[in-house]
Amino acid sequence: MNWRGIIPILVLLLFTGCEVFDKEEKIPSYLQIDRLNYPGTTPSGFSCVFVYVNYQIIGVFEVPALIPVLEQGDCRITVRAGIDINDYPYEREIYRLINPFEVRQTLVPGQITTITPQFTTHENVETVWEENFDNSAITILPTDTLTPRIRIVREPRPGNSGSIGQIIITPSDTLKKIFDYSAIDSMQIYFEAVPGFYELSYRSNIPFELRLKTYNIATSLIQDVFLMWVRPSPTDWRRIYINFASVVREFGVGTFYKPYFRVQKLESFNAVDTINLSIDDIRIAYLKRN
Fold first, then answer.
1. Parent domain of 85
2. Which H/E stretch holds residue 13?
């Protein structure tokens, strides 16, 4: 055996191993994010935050979050709000209709720095349709006389001091099982190449449907489109975001849309005597190109 060739290798491995095990571990600093502020829309519906330090992604975190950071000293921290697309927690992405929050902080190893991101609406947001029920001339109506009308109710809540739209369907409403509430006007929409969303806040003791009626000028094709089932939230307000850019991509240029809600008396919810659905801050909006 040629020990002359092996001994240098063993010595090299010995010193390399010592260097690995003796290397001092870096103590992280910590960022604490307890809440997110977005004036005018409560709840915001933001499910997470994308956090960057010195423009390097640290990770995606649900709030509240205690986030370890290996950077230290004077750092630029960027936080971008994330949403669950179509209410699916496994389809999270940055909500690009608001500006990122940025702040400079001195990060100290072993210490916690608390930040509260304050988000603002992006200046290039174009709103196609908006209904917040603060005007008596609302843009959503029942589609027939047997469907109870939407009540305008003043209901202040954190971040919202105005009114809401309330749909109440009692056991006495027995002549039908399906109740539709539709936007008055159809709207022409096309923004497939930019971020665009159909958004609303709601509170409901049963699931309900979001649907569209579409009309294409070139083909004269009329369609009734199911978008999604919205899950119940009897006591807490929730906000959902539908990727509307993908919807208009499917139907193309020259299509008019009329959004509507469908409320049904479902057999699985027979224990619910009175259907109570509250809605607010509905809008279809997109980010215009510069």
1. 29-114
2. helix 3-22
On whether residue 13 sits in a domain, the answer given is no
Residue 259's Cβ-count burial label (10 Å; 0-12, 13-18, 19+) is buried
Q: Could you read off the pLDDT of 13-43 as tens digits, one per residue?
A: 444 544 444 556 789 999 999 999 998 777 8
Q: Is residue 265 part of a domain?
A: yes
- Residue 115 one-letter amino acid: I
Is 283 found in the same domain as 145?
yes
Q: Are residues 82 and 175 in the same domain?
A: no
Amino acid at 243: N
Give the type of residue at 167: I
Residue 37 falls inside a structural domain: yes
Q: How far apart are CA 6 and CA 18, in angstroms?
A: 19
Separation CA 97–CA 99 (nearest Å): 7
What single-letter amino acid sits at 49? V
> What CATH number is associated with residue 53?
2.60.40
Q: What values do phi and psi take at 12, rounded to 5?
A: -65, -45
Amino acid at 152: I
Apex CA 39: angle with CA 204 and CA 230, to 5°?
A: 20
Could you report the per-residue pLDDT of 42-98, keeping only the tens digit for each?
A: 788 999 999 999 999 999 999 999 999 999 999 999 999 999 998 888 889 999 999
Closest Cα to residue 201, out of 240, 152, 144, 245? Answer: 240
Q: The tokens of 282 are what?
A: 């509905």
Q: Do 119 and 35 meet the contact criterion of CB atoms below 8 Å apart?
A: no
